[in-house]
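Catalogue entry: protein

Sequence with per-residue tokens
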Amino acid sequence: MPLLRFFLVLVFLVSSGAAAESRGLKAGAFAQDITPTKFPSPINGNLKGGFASRVTDPMHARALALQNGRNTVILCVVDSCMIPREVCEAAKAIAAKRTGVPTSHLLISATHSHSCATMTAVFQSDPDPDYIAELPGRIAQALIRAQANLEPAEIAWGKDRDPTQVFNRRWFVKTGETYENPFDSTRDRAWMNPGVKNPKVTEPAGPVDPEVFILAARARADGRPIAMLANYSLHYVGGLPAISADYYGAFASEIAQRLNAGDTRYTGKPPFVGIMSNGTSGNINNVNYAAAIAAPRKPPGEQIKIVAKSVGDAAMRAWEKLAWKSDVPLASAERDLQLRVRKATPAELERAQRLVDTTPRDKDGMFSDRKALYAREALLLDKYPDRVPVKLQAHRIGGLTIAAIPCEVFVEIGLDLKATKPLEDHFTISLANGYNGYLPTPEHHKLGGYETWRARSSYLEVDAATKISKELKAMLAIVAK
């Protein structure tokens, strides 16, 4: 492997052993409102761009800062479908200048709520440029204020399980059955969201990860809960026709209530911050296609509450088992991995241009026809460079490691990283530090299906998952030393 690529960007500080641990651990948290103020606001997460005219619940950038006297790590989760690398980099630069914390020690990820203001242009949804211009400063405030709120603290991490809310959404197509994809092919052997009792499919094409992981902080002086960062491999829930933080925001409120974080004894202290990060959920959602009948339609927002309560139960079970520590090593590593972009051939581009030129658009100027929509994506992807940087991070917090990947990561990748973890505990945060589309394994690329279809939502080379996993395992080994 060429050294230039392997060490293109490598920043790490390792703390290990009793001599490297610094007494006086501190923690701080802050939730910064980033809700758009101009309406209608574009929202993404669907093949056609949508618009919201009201707010059901606000969007936030929620941050947890940890400092052990030598190193600082700040983890920030933003209510968004996906965040472009440029916004993450700009927000980090502002925060680093104000806090003195290296950008490699700052993590900014998206929740993947499909009802948040558009930040990344995907399919037919484009962001409001005025909103994008103000976002870096607003997100940076979450990191800056979290660091400013640092106080003597104890931290702990642990896990429990909630298998009731996660289902693999890709199903095997039966032998002899087919369906047509947007590229005139019927060779796909996996079908995303096939519907309940679809006679053309057999069983889920992969596993799930039911673990609910938490990283918690409490004040050393009075035991006041400072923050809980949770991680669960669930794509999103949905069901609200307005700006909403989805179940990620509902979980934050749920867990604050469970921990009595609004106790009047804590008046005048920084408020508790609940945070839910997205695990490896690229092929996981909240719909059970193995059910005997389709679930009845619920009132808007009802399923969000159900999931938040269910996952909150698991988080609280994990909380009850926590072993609190006031001295832990902190370490971070960061690398940019250059990966190829999957582009259309000249013949495919000719077909794409023909479809875009001849397919009628709706009255809103968008395509409803899937073939034309993906043809447009092929033309847009052709303007991408042949290789793109994919930012990877590895963080160590005591006996816990955290990997960060700027993709919608398939669950198999997250399970493999957990199985090969260098310390006792690990979880992965997806959609972190940018957006490089879906990350299926090479095996899933062979099966085809929506998550593999070439578009700005899925464009990395077929072997991207293999290369990313290899790099991350090396990085995790470094921070674990």
Notes: Residues 1-22 have pLDDT under 50 and may be disordered. The first strand starts at residue 11 and ends at 13. The CA atoms of residues 274 and 450 lie 33 Å apart. The first helix runs from residue 3 to 6.
